[in-house]
Amino acid sequence: MVTSTPLSILYVRPDAARDEELRLLVSEAHRRHTLYTCDTLREAELRVRDHGADVLLYEMSGTEQAAYKHFVDALHRFPRLPVILLTARANEIIGIQAVRAGAQDYIVLPLPDARSFNRILQFAVSRHAGRLEAEQAILDLRAQNEICLHVKSLAHIGVWEMDLVHQVMKVDDLFLQIAGLPDTLQELSLPNYLEKVQHSDLGRVREFFQTLPSLDHPASIVHRLVAQGRKVRHVRLAAQVVSGGVHAELRIMGYIQADPSLTGRAVLAPDRGPGRFVTLHKLQDKIMDEIGFHIRTPLFSMVNFIYLLESQPRNKQDQDAFRGLKESIQELQQYLNRLMNFSLISRDVPAIVTRAFEPARDLEMISQLMATGDREDQLDLDIRVDKTLPERVMGDPGMLLRIMTTLQDLFRNLKDVARTVTIQINAESRVGKWTHFRILCRDPFPYAEPIPFRELLQKKGLAERYDERPENENLARMHFITLQALADAMKGSLQVNQLPNGSLRLLLTLPYELAPAVKDPQPVQDWVDPIRILLVEDHFLNQIVTRKVIQSWSDHIHVDIAENGLVAVQKFREHGYDLVLMDIQMPVMNGLEASRKIREKSDVPIIALSALASDQEAQRCLEAGINAYLAKPFQPDELKSAVFRMVSILR
What we know:
By secondary structure, the protein is an alpha/beta fold. About 45% of the residues lie in helices and about 25% in strands. It contains 20 helices and 24 strands. Strands 6, 7, 8, 9, 10, 11 and 12 form a seven-stranded antiparallel beta sheet that branches. Strands 13, 14, 15, 16, 17, 18 and 19 form a seven-stranded mixed beta sheet that branches. Helix 11 packs parallel to helix 12 (about 395-415) and helix 17 packs parallel to helix 18 (about 590-600). The longest helix is centred in the N-terminal third of the chain and has 42 residues, at about 115-155.
């Protein structure tokens, strides 16, 4: 039931033709309603400032495009007022667009009867008040969450929870830091955690976890964790069983904290062989990540320059030079992925970015890329992609590239003889939303000696300090371990065996979630207003080329540039934009912080463009209020699809 309360109604109209009719309707709706009329939004602003108002009636007039633009302007000028649109066109689409833009309701003229009109007014006021309360509650919750995070950081407390059925611990970054675990982990099984416990404390810790489900009060235990194979950390682990969720399921929630009584004590575990190289491996990982970042950024510019040059007319000589340039850049991309594989072996979990992609198209591109390698190579890869592959799946397309280039290097280093290795890629039958890709490799070369696959797949062999084996054998061992690590990261499997005739058979099985098919984005020309995009990018070449690529799509697109996050926030506050393309790694203010500040003022779509490709990076983007994430280097068509899709949803 809607309470009929007296309202102060502000009517912004194109002319005075409807004033008398509306005044009569307002008085019939409620004898204490008051109506005020204004000719312009500026006049309405002054009226609201001096006397206030309860609801705004805005009547559209003129051409549809200009009228809708003025209406959106009204919404921005009066964010604290419920707005109702009046339109003379019997067009439901305009009304729906108005509600999506922020209006509380719409009325298609002629005016309704007094009772219906009053209900529309009262409902609009009630809904708007509820919306303002919800927005304030969200702001209060965000503020409380920021305080909790700040206190947790000051106290240096890591948080974790575990479901009793699967015994998987979900942990935060501080938990990993305190426990000395890799910062790429987000889930940790209980058996894996127990493996990190100092052997003499293992019995007590195991009993602690076994006893927790029977306790009705919090419990804690101080014990030692062996971090990175040799450094011992004294920690306090506290927990309690709680129930919650839709099905009131039981789970354990708790925290971890460095034990204050032992703070500052440097204790080293006994030397465990390869563990003495852990610090070097961490440094290697950091350097490899930096190399990847600083190569991917200019590589992204080169890929986009090629995209622009492909549409330009060229003579025969220029075509040959352009083809050579394209092959060189493709080969550079290939070798960059090989370079990143070297750091993969020393990591527990490789970086993964999950998104929707088209596997058949990507595999075709990968096949072409691999064919641009060494023309003198005696190895020929016959890559056969089954036409029944799903159109779109959820996963990391970069992982497919790493797998295929690793396979190429593996067979090259196993034996440098002329032969054709067949790689057959197909999809198994679908189960619900999931399917499994099968990458079956057959090497026909008859190896005279049995290949020790079990030994080759162990990292221990690579950690030996002295190894007199030939270089190609060590490289083959590294590629086997890389394939196993990639399969494990994707929750797949690797099977390798040698047939009786000495030939080699290798099978990778990788699970993928099916992604829904998407419609082609709406053309720019069909939208009411031009698109205004803010490109936030600190790299000069990327600024030039990305702007040229985007503006080549349509004359209806305008791109402004901000060289860092601080400038981006200032420009957005001054001008407002339809879309923000946000680089993440920038000086002065990074993209995550800039996105948070923009999100405080607006729901504008933000797409992150980052050279640091990982699910953790994507998650940090989402937590900062970013809507979508693209990892550099990406194809211009990927950016075009993401931009058009975002703006289509908005409009």
